[in-house]
């Protein structure tokens, strides 16, 4: 596969694992859907990701556009590397490529276990056009730090779209309360 694999030098000790919950890394990847993705399939992906991410201390946002994904994950480096390995093996993804994996100054989505946005569902704006263009350039292997910064800015802009659609936070089915997603 043509991508840069996330790498963690050694397994964390219990003390390092506790500290890593406070330390934050970011992983940005792009992939192509192996087959057409319906809204129900996106919601299934979100549900499974939230369950897994809650246990691993991961937050993030998944964007979908015309059969392509771009996802920003945030959390402990080891958990991100393990999650990326699972994504690579997921038969719903094809041509998975890690565009960025490294330390972050903080989380963009601290309260979201996984937000999901299909760009076809929002009114097109410059931000969305820019993100679609970035998805295309990333899948063609043309990513660089400038493109990464533009992707992060686009993800920040999409946060309000996701919140308006109720796709950033999850509802606790047991009591109807909204919990950090």
Secondary structure tally, helices: 5
Principal-axes geometry comes out as: globular
Mean model confidence by pLDDT: 74
What is the chain-wise order of helices and strands?
Answer: HEHEEHEEHHEE
CATH architecture field? 2-Layer Sandwich
Poorly predicted runs are 1-5, 7-22, 171-181
Rg calculated over all Cα atoms: 16 Å
Description:
The protein is α+β, with helices and mostly antiparallel strands. It has a single domain, classed as Alpha-Beta Plaits (2-Layer Sandwich), CATH 3.30.70.100. The protein has 5 helices and 7 strands, in the order H-E-H-E-E-H-E-E-H-H-E-E. The chain has a 5-stranded mixed β-sheet with strand order 4-1-3-2-5, sandwiched between helices. Helix 4 crosses helix 5. The chain is globular and about 35 Å long.
List the topology elements:
Layout: H1 14-20, E1 25-33, H2 39-56, E2 59-65, E3 68-75, H3 77-89, E4 93-103, E5 115-118, H4 126-139, H5 145-164, E6 170-171, E7 178-179
Parallel strand pairs: 2-5
Antiparallel strand pairs: 1-3, 1-4, 2-3, 6-7
Helix pairs in contact: 4-5
């Amino acid at each position: 596969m043509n991508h840069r694999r996330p790498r963690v030098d050694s397994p964390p000790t219990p003390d390092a694992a506790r500290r890593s919950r406070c330390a934050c890394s970011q992983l940005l990847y792009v992939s192509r859907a192996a087959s057409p993705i319906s809204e129900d399939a996106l919601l299934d992906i979100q549900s499974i990701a939230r369950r897994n991410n809650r246990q691993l201390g991961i937050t993030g946002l998944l964007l979908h556009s015309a059969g392509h994904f771009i996802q920003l994950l945030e959390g402990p480096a080891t958990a991100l590397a393990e999650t990326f390995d699972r994504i690579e093996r997921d038969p719903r993804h094809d041509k998975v490529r890690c565009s960025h994996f490294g330390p972050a100054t903080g989380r963009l989505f601290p309260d979201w276990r996984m937000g999901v946005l299909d760009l076809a569902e929002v009114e097109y704006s410059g931000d969305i056009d820019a993100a679609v263009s970035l998805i295309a350039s990333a899948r063609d292997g043309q990513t660089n730090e400038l493109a990464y910064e533009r992707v992060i800015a686009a993800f920040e802009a999409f946060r309000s779209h996701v919140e308006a659609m109720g796709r950033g936070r999850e509802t606790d089915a047991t009591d109807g309360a909204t919990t950090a997603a």
